[in-house]
Specification:
394 residues; Receptor-associated Protein; 2 domains; two-stranded antiparallel sheet; 2% strand
Length: 394
């Protein structure tokens, strides 16, 4: 038998263009406009980003290459090959600026949000003094210290959150899934149930009937908080309240003080003026109360006031030990050394505070978890025990 040959069909698909009178719609143009608008609305989705660890690696590798005699232009090109995406485009631009004869610090100023004023100023000082390799190594070490500080604070706060979520999960399982299976038995006993059992029945019914509304309300609260956090007054209020939380507020305070003193001390060591060092420290801090006080400090210094005299006005933000040490540093002319020494003290205090916070929160959370689970267990066991006590043997 002869086999039938299936004819080949060739499809030629083109992007259609629709025309409605004076209005035309081109799909290609629509896609390009869509992504352009998306980029302008959410630039953070497509912009370059470097974590503290990546910034430290960049500075350390650049220092090693510079020590080996490799020009900065070629060094950046070598590091560029190890990146991709938006970061690769960023290094392309930095490499292009260096090839045009610009300084590295000036090339990095285009990406101030990525590298930060502190890193740019340290590099600029190295370029001026001819010690770019040493300054890059120093910058890498300081970024590592900053990352370690952030890690200590994060680790101290993560464990309580995990315990809290575990407690809520266990209590939710017992209240929403297990207890409703036993509830018909308790209601059929026709006896007065213990107070704990009645409270648990009410909670269980509320979660079953209104649980989704509760979750919806929580989601709306989170959205409202995120929106409100964009406003300066709300963020300032939240940052101020965080500093007043027992135990945790002390950890956050020492974290900010160690960062501020180290940043200012290192910049003053690099022969920056006090006003410039305060401006960089103000830009690097994440706490609005401290940023506000640094703004006031800059104005006070221009009017002839000393640093210590102004910081004494805010004892809740700047402890007496800091103001006294700063006063000594100003008097002796060793303010940069004094600030670096204070940074070391506050780093040690931060390590102790995080240990104390963990030692206080861990047993407290375990006690709370035990009380909640124990309350549910007693609410279930007590009515069963009372019924069995009233059963008469045959």
């Amino acid at each position: 038998m002869n086999k039938l040959k299936t004819p080949k069909i060739r499809l030629n698909i083109t992007m259609p263009k629709f025309d409605f009178g004076n209005f035309s719609f081109d799909q290609k143009n629509f896609v390009s406009v869509f992504f352009r608008n998306l980029y302008s609305t959410f630039p953070g989705l497509f912009s370059a980003r470097l974590s503290l660890q990546e910034q430290s690696l960049f500075a350390r590798r650049l220092s090693l290459l510079s020590k080996s005699g490799v020009p900065l232009f070629e060094s950046v090109n070598i590091l560029k090959r190890q990146t991709k995406g938006a970061n690769r485009k960023m290094f392309d631009r930095i490499s292009h600026d260096l090839s045009q004869g610009q300084y590295l610090s000036k090339a990095l100023m285009r990406y101030r949000k990525v590298f930060g004023n502190f890193a740019i100023n340290i590099i600029q000082v190295g370029e001026t003094s001819g010690t770019i390799a040493e300054n890059l190594k120093y910058l890498a070490e300081e970024l590592d210290k900053k990352r370690e500080l952030r890690g200590k604070v994060t680790s101290a706060l993560v464990y309580p959150v995990i315990i809290a979520l575990a407690s809520l999960g266990i209590c939710g399982f017992l209240t929403i899934y297990l207890f409703p299976k036993l509830m018909p038995i308790f209601l059929s006993l026709n006896v007065k149930l213990p107070l704990a059992t009645r409270i648990l029945i009410w909670v269980s019914r509320f979660l079953i009937n209104y649980g989704w509304w509760l979750i919806l309300g929580l989601i709306l609260f989170i959205i409202a908080f995120i929106v409100a956090h964009k406003y300066y007054r709300f963020r300032f209020f939240v940052d101020r309240m965080i500093l007043r939380i027992p135990f945790m507020g002390g950890v956050i305070q020492y974290y900010h003080l160690s960062n501020l003193t180290r940043t200012m001390g290192l910049l003053l060591k690099g022969q920056l003026r006090v006003i410039e060092a305060i401006e960089v420290a103000r830009d690097t801090t994440a706490s609005l109360p401290y940023a506000k006080e640094l703004d006031h400090l800059k104005i006070a210094i221009t009017k002839g006031s000393s640093i210590a005299r102004h910081l004494e006005k805010e004892p809740k933000l700047f402890p007496s030990m800091l103001t006294e040490m700063v006063s000594v540093g100003e008097t002796t002319g060793n303010l940069s050394e004094t600030l670096v020494y204070l940074a070391q003290i506050y780093e040690q205090e931060l390590a102790e505070k995080t240990k104390q916070l963990s030692s206080v929160i861990e047993p407290a959370m375990m006690i709370v978890m035990g009380v909640l689970v124990g309350f549910i267990a007693i609410s279930i066991i007590t009515p069963i025990y009372e019924v069995t006590q009233h059963l008469a043997p045959r």
